[in-house]
Design a protein that fits this description.
Elements: H1 5-20, H2 24-28, H3 39-50, H4 61-80, H5 88-105, H6 116-121, H7 138-143, E1 148-149, H8 152-162, H9 166-179, E2 183-184, E3 188-193, E4 201-205, H10 208-228, H11 236-250, E5 253-256, H12 267-273, H13 276-285, E6 289-292, E7 295-298, H14 310-328, E8 336-338, E9 341-345, H15 349-358, E10 374-377, E11 380-383, E12 386-387, H16 399-416, H17 421-428, E13 436-437, E14 447-448, E15 466-480, E16 485-487, E17 493-494, H18 498-506, E18 515-530, H19 541-544, H20 548-559
Parallel strand pairs: 1-2, 3-6, 13-14
Antiparallel strand pairs: 3-4, 5-9, 6-7, 8-9, 10-11, 11-12, 15-16, 15-18, 16-17
């Protein structure tokens, strides 16, 4: 692309100086946002500290090494965890937490998880990699790849379960005949994915059968979360945001974030606080070891990121903590937890912090807020009730990257009122200005504009809707022929399993156009038409952080006002 990060930083610096009198570097040198800051200064500080924070480096060996060192520290911390109750309050908090967890896993005294059968029936595959899998889709992982597993007992259960379903049994028989029986492996494979400019994120690639069962258990736990704690993982971030918003206004709510929470759920802790029958299932489905470049590492955490039940499990643990703290304080407030994003009443935060400490977790002081006008939770940043969430640039290599930054900057202006005219116009000079798209379209597809600001207002003769051009991502797919399946670019053949393919079609996980290839494809310019332009779809004004009129003003002043 014809633009450089230095030019973008210089343009941002000019906008910030115009807004608050301080430049990019000056704002970056402020370690914490002062409580008496004006809204303008808070917004400027937010974007200065966020703008390049998640910019992905071309070479990530240093970030990977930092992540690996942190992973080892977390694993060692999990190994050395011991329960130390020093006061009667500690004993009360701990006992109440264990009782909440028992109530969760034994509704009305009946086990939530009563057999591997129910876990199998809820099983599924995720979109990511799995050991031995040739692709990330359901068909490729289960019916066209060598199956891998850490336990012969789990293999035997899988084989007995598929016998109940004739078509699945036929598919597994065909797969085994051509690719061998499921293979026993020692555990997962440690890998790293980009996170920000200082450190990567660790992901453990799980054996394929383990992952199928882990996600099945995760589904059971997710449904129980909704029933017991009223935590719906699809909508809970908005609930957390509402409370963080309120806390930034009156201080009634505190937001807590933890460091490496998923990697510090100690196996010893789990055996201490969960019923033994539950631990048995968790233990059977987990990977006891992981491997990096041939070096094996014994895992002292119950699971890691990459395990299919990690996220709902950690949500359960922290939700039960919050409920225990409320019960010990004589309160009946609704719990607000999403993973390790915790929102708790400020009046009981000290008890919550103590229970977190007893369980061996570490509070992230840079992302936890108890006093002052700032609160952060689930990607929402509030300062005195206003959303000042910054702009995070991950890449500027493609045209689509620049479109995404332009649209993110206009939304930031709509939320905060801080103009980014110099930066946005610099970016706009380096993109295809003919791609003017509605605000509900993919922000990587063009410049999102209000209807009254688009240059071309052609009407489709067939649909009577407004015609516009945008870039769409066309995913590559694995083609399906009469007796073969292959990827079009490398002509790499994949096992053609007729019964497995039928099951994939019936379950909706395969299409007549082929099987999806994850993160592979290209952008193509297309024409579309719509009858309703000025809308943000299902996103509410609260979720967006601005009203439609504010966004229209932001787009006008950033893109067109000289």
């Amino acid at each position: 692309m014809g633009i450089h990060s230095v030019a973008m930083t210089s343009a941002l610096d000019a906008d910030l100086r115009m807004a608050c009198g301080m430049g990019y570097d000056e704002l970056r040198r402020i370690p914490h946002l002062p409580p008496d800051s004006s809204h303008v200064l808070a917004s400027a500080w937010s974007i200065a500290n966020s703008f390049w924070k998640k910019f992905l480096p071309k070479e990530s060996s240093k970030q990977d090494q930092a992540c690996y060192a942190k992973f080892l520290v977390s694993n060692e911390r999990s190994r050395t965890w011991q329960l130390r109750l020093n006061t009667s309050l500690d004993e009360e908090l701990w006992g109440t937490w264990k009782q909440e967890l028992y109530n969760f896993f034994y509704p009305k005294g009946v086990p939530l998880i009563d057999s591997l059968d129910s876990i199998f029936l809820s099983g599924k595959v995720g979109p990511g990699a799995a050991i031995g899998a040739v692709n990330g889709d359901f068909y490729s992982k289960i019916f066209a790849s060598p199956l891998t597993c850490t336990s012969q007992g789990l293999v035997k259960h899988y084989e007995s379960m598929v016998r109940r379903f004739p078509e699945w049994f036929s598919a597994e028989s065909f797969r085994s005949q051509h690719l061998s029986a499921p293979r026993i492996v020692q555990g997962s494979r440690l890998s790293f994915v980009p996170k920000n400019d200082t450190i990567s994120r660790s992901i453990c690639v799980e054996p394929s059968l383990n992952m199928y069962y882990q996600l099945g258990l995760g589904q059971i736990l997710t449904e129980r979360l909704n029933r017991y704690f009223r935590i719906n993982l699809e909508t809970q971030p908005d609930r957390n945001a509402e409370l963080a918003h309120r806390g930034s206004i009156d201080g009634s709510w505190s937001t807590i974030d933890l460091e490496s929470a998923s990697d510090t759920i100690s196996y010893a802790l789990i055996k201490e606080v969960l019923p033994s029958a539950v631990v048995t299932y968790l233990d059977l489905l987990r990977s006891p070891r992981t491997e990096l470049k041939g070096e094996g590492i014994e895992l002292h955490m119950i699971s890691s990121m990459g395990n299919g039940y990690t996220f709902p499990l950690q949500t359960i643990l922290f939700a039960a903590m919050v409920k225990a703290v409320y019960r010990c304080s004589g309160l009946q407030e609704r719990v607000a937890v999403f993973g390790d994003d915790i929102v708790v009443l400020s009046t009981v935060r000290h008890r919550m912090l103590r229970l977190i400490e007893l369980a061996g977790f570490i509070v992230n002081p840079a992302k936890s807020f108890f006093e002052g006008p700032f609160r952060e939770s689930c990607g929402y940043d509030y300062f005195s009730g206003r959303n000042i969430r910054g702009v995070y640039v991950k890449s500027i290599d493609t045209l689509q990257d620049l479109f995404a930054v332009i649209n993110a900057c206009n939304r930031f202006t709509a939320r905060t009122g801080l103009l980014l005219r110099t930066l946005v116009q610099l970016l706009a000079d380096n993109v295809d200005r003919s791609c003017e798209i509605p605000p509900w379209e993919d922000p990587s597809g063009g410049i999102q504009l209000p209807y009254n600001m688009i240059n071309s207002r052609r009407v489709s003769e067939t649909t009577q809707g407004t015609v516009y051009s945008l870039y769409c991502f066309k995913a590559r797919k694995i083609r399906i022929g009469e007796d073969k399946i292959y990827t079009s670019r490398r002509r790499k053949k994949i096992l053609y399993n007729p019964s497995g393919l039928l099951l994939a079609f019936v379950s909706g996980m395969a299409l007549s156009s082929g099987l999806p290839l994850r993160n592979e494809g290209h952008w193509k310019k297309k024409r579309r038409s719509c009858s309703s332009w000025n809308s943000f779809g299902s996103r509410t004004e609260f979720q967006l952080g601005f009203a439609l009129r504010q966004w229209e003003s932001a787009a006008y002043y950033n893109l067109f006002r000289v």
